[in-house]
Amino acid sequence: MRLIVLSVLWSLWWVPAVASADSGDGCLDLYFIDVEGGAATLIVTPAGESVLIDSGYPDNQSRDLDRIMHVAKDLADLKRIDHAVVSHWHLDHFGNHAALAAKFGIGTFWDRGIPDELSEDPGYADRIASYRAASQNASRALQIGDTLPLTSGKTRLAVRVLTSGREVVTGEGEVNPFAERHKAQPDDPSDNSASLSLLYEFGKFRFLTCGDLTWNTEAKLVTPRNPVGLVDLFMVTHHGLPVSNNPAMVLAIDPVVAIMCNGPKKGGAAQTMATLREVKSLKNWFQLHRNVELEAAQQAPTEFIANSAQTEDCKGEWILAKVAADGASYHVQIGPQGKKHAYATRAR
User: Fold this and answer.
1) Helix count (H) and strand count (E) of the chain?
2) CATH number of the domain to which 85 belongs
3) Tens-place pLDDT, residues 24-77
4) What angle do CA 159, 146, 38 make, to 5 degrees?
5) What is the pLDDT of residue 15?
6) I need a surface site. Which of 81, 160, 249, 280 has the fewest CB within 10 A?
7) Which domain holds residue 36?
């Protein structure tokens, strides 16, 4: 009887640090979830750890919450989210963190630090109260140079913070030959400019996501030197809006593939598309949505656009980037039946 009791107590006490499923294929999976112009990116590591960057809008009959949970449970076979990151404090980026914690479970909450108030959001006090409650006031603030504590296996995996709270990593990298392309815009006092930027490295594969970082802070990061270096995959910043995606940065990081988390009428700006067309190494860019206000010739080809309908008829198709176990190649596909567009990781 004593052994049985001890066995039960042990089972109740011991909970694995990683509560996610391990697919066993050794790949790094990056799901770009359609949240209609917000952002929600789910990353699942070879060890089965999960990182959700942002969580879309709340409400809308739980549309974004349901889409995130569908990808996490049904596609990634997760039992919870191990790490949930807030890139910045706008509703379309942390709208479902509290609901996800209640319905699915979140291990560790990460952000750039919680401001007491946010002048651009009258409802911020209520929203941040829900976040604080869900995180039990134990979210962890990320500063520049910090790394996320993810398990690294045979192929090295690392995640580094490059911007946080308008502070940027400086003094590293080669001189940026595109620095002169920066033409200063009016100062942006919004929380967009304080976004977290994360650089993922898996073997030689490199992925950059910058939340809604805006023009002048982008330039601050990459001029006069570029500490980011070249990347394979770039999540187009700020849904593809022209107040972001400074050519001084986009041309300097020279992505091979770009993925734009835009909506039918949010982001996907013609100016940003034009900047992408200048990128020397860019093979393809993908859009979560067709911009219904732009001509087809100004956007990615139809086969690289996940959703073409207006919001009311949108099926919420996702985009997956799957990186091979050795980090030497990857493919990008739209939805479960989409064509797999294959790419070799660039030489370093």
Assistant:
1) 8, 19
2) 3.60.15.10
3) 789 999 999 999 999 999 999 999 999 999 999 998 899 999 999 999 999 999
4) 60
5) 35
6) 280
7) 19-344
| Tokens (6 digits) for 142 | 């990320």
Whether 4 is covered by a domain: the verdict is no
Nearest to 196 by CA among 209, 182, 178, 181: 209
Classify residue 10: in a domain, yes or no: no
| List of the chain residues with pLDDT < 70 | 1-23
How many folded domains does the chain comprise? 1
| Per-residue DSSP letter, 336 | T
Measured CA angle at 43 (ends 108, 21), to 5 deg: 75
| Residue 214 domain-assigned (yes or no) | yes
Task: Evaluate whether residue 154 is within a structural domain.
Answer: yes
Amino acid symbol at 1: M
List of residues 6+ apart from 338 with CB closer than 8 A: none
